[in-house]
Write a structure and sequence with these properties.
single chain, 287 residues, alpha+beta, 2 domains, seven-stranded antiparallel β-sheet, 52% helix, elongated, MAM33_sf, MAM33, Regulatory protein suaprga1
Length: 287
């Protein structure tokens, strides 16, 4: 289960986005050009700048350092999240191996299944609140109605299943998860999914690439090539039986509810660890 910390941080991101949007609107070039300080105001500003002192700047540094230290102590003394035990249990029992580089937002779970190389990728930056997902769902439904709905091929978006009463005033969080399956000499398929708070994976798109490198798009050339490729239709336009078989395809390879519980718990833990490291680095810089 996702902790309240994860939900709160996602909600905070939404408020920050809205605030930044308002600031950009307020500071539009037209408004900036419409006001210029008079000579007297400019003189007053210049005089005020002359009275600023170095000790005042040092005081700000000291206050900032103290606040960073306070936050660092709080984070280190906070009790271990209940999801930590679930993380250990999952990794000890799972066929997947964890790949996590300190300082990186992305995390990978990798395994071999028969002749397949499977890589599951998620990120601390891949969180979307249900409110944001609703906007995507509107386009999701519009695209589906144009083709799939006329043939009865409808698929419910994960955010449609979320009961707002279950999460109170907090908006539940959707996690973007990519699953890449590669086979020697046969290329790779990339299944783009969304993970809802109940631990269910919902496939959004299935793309085919001639090589694993092209699927990952690590180089500029691969990224350019990706943009020019036809990678398959929207998932909702596929036959319902085909959709169901792709769902089973994921489960057979271990992309299941157990992983669906592990991922948000691990994101929460990693985000806390990275935040502590960030506090330490900034504190050293300010000191």
């Amino acid at each position: 289960m996702q902790s309240m910390r994860l939900l709160a941080r996602a909600a905070t991101r939404n408020h920050l986005k809205a605030a930044r949007s308002s600031i950009r609107t307020f500071q539009s070039p037209a408004l900036q050009r419409s006001w210029r300080p008079t000579a007297s105001i400019a003189k007053t500003i210049q005089q005020s700048a002359c009275f600023s002192s170095t000790p005042a700047r040092f005081e700000v540094n000291e206050e900032l350092f103290a606040k960073l230290d306070q936050e660092l102590v709080y984070e280190k003394e906070s009790p271990q999240d209940e999801g930590a035990n679930d993380i250990k249990e999952y990794l000890s029992a799972s066929e997947f191996q964890l790949e996590d580089i300190e300082g990186s937002q992305e995390v990978h779970l990798v395994r071999t299944f028969n002749d397949e190389q499977i890589k599951v990728t998620f990120s601390t930056a891949g969180l979307t609140s249900a409110e944001e997902a609703e906007a995507d769902a509107a386009m999701f439904d519009e695209d589906a109605d144009s083709g799939a709905a006329s043939e009865g091929k409808t698929r419910q978006a994960p955010e449609d299943d979320l009961d707002s009463d279950e999460y109170g005033s907090q908006s539940p969080v959707i996690v973007a998860v990519d699953v890449q399956v590669s086979r020697p000499g046969k290329g790779a398929i990339l299944l783009e999914t969304e993970l809802d708070p109940s631990g269910q994976f919902y496939i959004k798109h299935v793309a085919f690439y001639s090589t694993p490198e092209l699927a990952e798009g690590k180089t500029a050339d691969d990224q350019i090539a990706q943009r020019n490729l036809y990678t398959g239709p929207p998932f909702v336009e596929l036959d319902e039986n085909l959709q169901a078989l792709f769902d089973e395809y994921l489960k057979e390879r271990g992309i299941n509810e157990s992983m669906g519980v592990f991922i948000p718990n691990y994101i929460d833990q990693k985000e806390t660890q990275e935040y502590v490291k960030w506090l330490e680095n900034v504190k050293k810089f300010v000191e």
